[in-house]
Amino acid sequence: MTSTTEQFADLSATTLLRFATAGSVDDGKSTLVGRLLHDSKSVLTDQMEAVEAVSAQRGQEAPDLALLTDGLRAEREQGITIDVAYRYFATARRRFILADTPGHVQYTRNMVTGASTADLAVVLVDARNGVIEQTRRHAAVAALLRVPHVVLAVNKMDLVGYQESVFAAIAEEFTAYASDLGVPEITAIPISALAGDNVVEPSANMDWYGGPTVLEHLETVPVSHDLTACPARFPVQYVIRPQSAEHPDYRGYAGQIASGVLRVGEAVTVLPSGRTSTIAGIDALGESVDIAWAPQSVTLRLADDIDISRGDLIAPSANAPATTQDVEATVCHVADQPLSVGARVLIKHTTRTVKAIVKEIPSRLTLDDLSQHPNPGQLVANDIGRVVVRTAEPLALDAYADSRRTGSFLLIDPADGTTLAAGMAGESFASKAETTVQADEEGWDF
């Protein structure tokens, strides 16, 4: 088999797709991932030999492809903390980073971690069971995180006689639910991960299905990474002042452009101070340039001497974000210790970290039916809820619906640095009006 290293050797021109898998326990997620890796020839020879040996020891005639991803299951059996497993593979058309997330409800926080940077989520359903509560949870998390593409993989079609009516009923129910949540694009695919039907190769058993296989869809789904269409945002990471004989007066502000385009001569505002200046120069890779765009790492030089430090945000004056000390957001609580009203926390937004206090927890979301439990008082591990946080200093946040980069933040325990919650500023779910507009533009901004 071809090695992963060889496959990546000549793929500099191909696009990258980040996707996450989600499914209930025993829906066949490990088998699906194993089948994708095996049939796309992304498995090393020694890995395949080990799988074949273990399968033979168990008396299985064919290799159990689920063993390719069974490290996660072994961790669970040993009681080790479960985390997202990232897997890398490639085809001639595209490179992939797969976030393999656990299926148990108590690991909702892990799906949030895996899907937070995903362009696409694959939600697995057992054709015999249809859409269950965990399926609805996964759809809700994908909608909360503004994942622009969702694939419904209806697995184990071989166990229901490859009936089109079974697939159609499940696809209709899930699509209606996910659409109501604001997911802009849903693609349903009937598969049998065990037999390989419609995973990489088209199925001879489902001639009634004329859509793409899972891999074909992954290879061709539009992925919009054009951050230059968004308003420019430049979080300052480091202030450069060499004060050397060669550069006695040099003062530059280094960082990575989070979104948008910056140009020499452009009027900018520094937040949260509100001071204004113009871009006098842009240094990239040791050379001066007239223009720079996301996600380049550059150093900005401004025309005026302004007190700027790490954590400040530089943005075009024409569309600078508003600053606030009252942050209203949806958070997923990821720590074992509860988050309570009155808790003193740190909030980390881009490169800025400030002190804050949790003023209010208006509601906790019940993912089973999307009902709101008012005023729960606290959030515990895996809870998703609305919070109001008062910060000691102003923050320049965008709405998460507008930018997943500058609309997200972390709540941190100031005592030991533990991450308490991952936050998304603004409204929880997209409205249907937003979904209609955004779907025409290939999903939300990344």
Describe this structure in words.
- The structure is a single chain.
- The chain has 446 residues and is α+β, with helices and mostly antiparallel strands.
- The chain is built from nine helices and 25 strands.
- The strands form five sheets. Strands 7, 8, 9, 11, 12, 13, 15 and 16 form an eight-stranded antiparallel sheet that branches. Strands 2-3-1-4-5-6 form a six-stranded mixed sheet, with helices on both faces. A six-stranded antiparallel beta barrel has the order 17-23-20-19-24-25.
- The radius of gyration is 24 Å and the shape is globular.
- The model is unreliable at 1-13, 72-82 and 432-446 (pLDDT under 50).
Number of strands: 25
Can you count the helices? 9
Rg over alpha carbons: 24 Å
Helix content: 10-25%
What is the subunit organization of this protein?
single chain
Distance N to C terminus:
35 Å
Indicate the structural class.
Answer: alpha+beta
- Overall shape: globular
Instruction: Assess the beta-strand content as a share of residues.
Output: 25-35%
Average of pLDDT: 84
Low-confidence stretches: 1-13, 72-82, 432-446
Major beta-sheet overview: 8 strands, antiparallel
Task: Supply the key terms.
446 residues; alpha+beta; 8-stranded antiparallel beta sheet; 6-stranded mixed beta sheet; globular; disordered N terminus; disordered C terminus
